[in-house]
Write a structure and sequence with these properties.
It contains 15 helices and eleven strands. Helix content is 43%, strand content 14%. By secondary structure, the protein is of the alpha+beta class. The chain has helices spanning 2-15, 24-30, 43-58, 78-84, 93-107, 118-122, 193-196, 198-216, 234-248, 278-293, 308-337, 341-345, 362-374, 380-386, 419-427; strands spanning 61-67, 70-73, 109-115, 131-135, 140-145, 155-161, 168-172, 176-180, 223-226, 265-268, 348-352. It comes from Schaedlerella arabinosiphila.
Length: 428
Amino acid sequence: MGVWNRIRNVWAALTMPTANLEDEELLDWLGITTRDKRKISEVTYFTCMKMLSETMGKLPLKYYQDTPEGKIRADPTDMTRLLTVRPNPIMTPTTLWSSVELNCQHYGNAYVWIQRNFLAERYGGEVINAGLWLMPSCDVTVLIDDAGIFQEKGKLYYQYTDAKTGELYVFPQEDVLHFKTGYSLNGIMGEPVRKIIGSSIDGALESQNFMNNLYEQGLTASAVLYFPAGELDERRRKELRNRYEKYLTGSKNAGKIVPVPIGLELKPLNMSLTDAQFFELRKYSALQIAGAFGIKPNQINNYEKSSYANSETQQLAFLVDTMSYRMKAYEEEINYKCLNPKEIREGYYYKYNEKVILRTDSKTQMENLASAVNNGIYTANEAREYLDLPQKDGGDILMVNGNYMPITMIGQQYRKEGEGNEGSEDQG
């Protein structure tokens, strides 16, 4: 009887329609949503989303191994090719990771289904019919098995509903890469920035709409039409108002002369964007939104207090303050779910190359590489690899200046013969 009840509960969990509290259409129908689907059209919000997604998309993912000799580049595996060469037949890695970050920032969570052949992978064979597939965040519901229906109490499952066919799929947590924002109260689900600072984004969107309407009206202010009381009924008032709106609004009517009959007076209302500090408030709202995303002022085209050196510092601060957290979160999820236990034991891991964000001009790059080679930090072949040049024979030897000596030997070259040995014997 217990087995039958368990099977029945599983079937009910899979077939019973569930209310997704992240579904915007459902919330709109219930009248309890405060989110605006047009938020992505707000220019600061769009710029921040674009900056984060493109930055994540251009970061190359590298495959390494920790060995007794140190970190080395590991030979690629089938999973490495999916992560770095072609995740699936229709996406490049750049497209996949950019889309993942967009979903993550806009919805708070992003999900990637790992399609793989467990049997082949377990025995070291070729992984066939494999791929990494982005699941739209709005079509995924996270379930936690707190009752032990699937015999593992507390395990997560991801329910994906195909928006076109209506088919429902349930994946265990090992088969789904789950990326979330940094704001998560329960550690399972992330919260999107647009939900937390929705009022600021709404205000910026309204100011943008106001400017758009102002341009559509030909930068013409609202006006008041004076006429003798009692001489016009409601119908004629509407006709007169519509006529003057047609004459006065729109860029095509800008600068044209509008005839006004005797007895009527058309008086524009005073409107001053300067007095209302419109642009100052809009700039302040943009900085608030960018700050919530971790975007620096120069990245939203605010160069008011920026210089060339200051912009470079802001780019470094963006890497340290914003992207380092995002990269670490991605690396941890990928290393946990894309490596098998054998690879983890042998020290294999994936890591993003964050140096692409800090690329400098060619002159500075050559000076840095030359300094690293001359001081024994890089070999010549390692420096050539940064420049996408082939390796050369003899280029794997570390070189240093022959005039250098240990600090403990400073001054010994000025001593007379025998003084150094006597000092050494005395010390012994």
